[in-house]
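Q: My labmate handed me this sequence with no annotations at all. I'd like to see what the chain might look like in three dimensions before we decide whether it's worth expressing. Could you predict it?
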Amino acid sequence: MDEIRIADGFPDQIMHVIPKPLLCEAAKNVLVGELYASHIGYFPLTRHHYVSRPKGTEEHILIYCVSGNGWLEIDGKRRKVSAGQALLVPQGCPHSYGASGKHPWEIFWVHFAGEDSAYYSSLLADGEHLLKIDPAISKNVCRLFMEGCKFFDNGFTQSRILCCSQMLRHLLAVIFFGNPAFMPGAAGGRHRSFDNVIEHMRQHLGDGLSLADIARKAGLSVARFSALFRAQTGFSPVQYHIRLRIQAACRLFDTTGLNVSEVAVKVGYPDQYYFSRIFRKVMGMPPRTYRSANRKSLTVDR
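A: Here is what I predict for the chain of 302 residues:
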């Protein structure tokens, strides 16, 4: 470990620490109090970067490693942090972290709290603090971080704190729910994308796809595929296919003059009455009621 240790003060760094009295006042707004940033920044050149917090912090800490390498020590274990990874330290958790001596990391970081803040730590498997950021969303993650930093370039106001709060919610949604490299609750955050399988379902709404057919498309056994698919989407493959069919039916009711029987056939239900029962179960109303209500709404909007 380098003898020189620097917590902050790097060339061209961005670091905003929101005044606590102003933050406490802003947090009375429900849009802020549920989730807000207390510190946010960007360190581009981090040679000798080192932070040690034996008692942890009052907030959760999210760090995104854009380039270079670093390390995190937590729960008595040291973990390497590489470019394209994020680390999440829960509030009150003793930890230390720092930049690699040979290839110091470039990082965005935020301290955050609020009523919803602990939820994001719960998405990681037990003992996990690192998650991979898919290259497809990396630019968006950096953009959102920089957007949050720029809110405070011209000072701190309650409206800017509110804007940053909403940016933070968007950022966490992208990292935890819009990240193809991460699956909430999975050991190591390992994720398997089923986008191609879902597209296959969507392209065959009118066909009699079986669960075995769909699992074969995924290259997995039926049992393994079903378990992974449910963990990722919250639905079994069959339930998801049904919902895709009903979603397509809604589009046909919204945009065509086809009757219920014709729509049913197009989305794979030759029995109109069975289709109507499924539609009502998913949408909470019969097909004719849906079409009537939606057309009235469109007429009013015009």
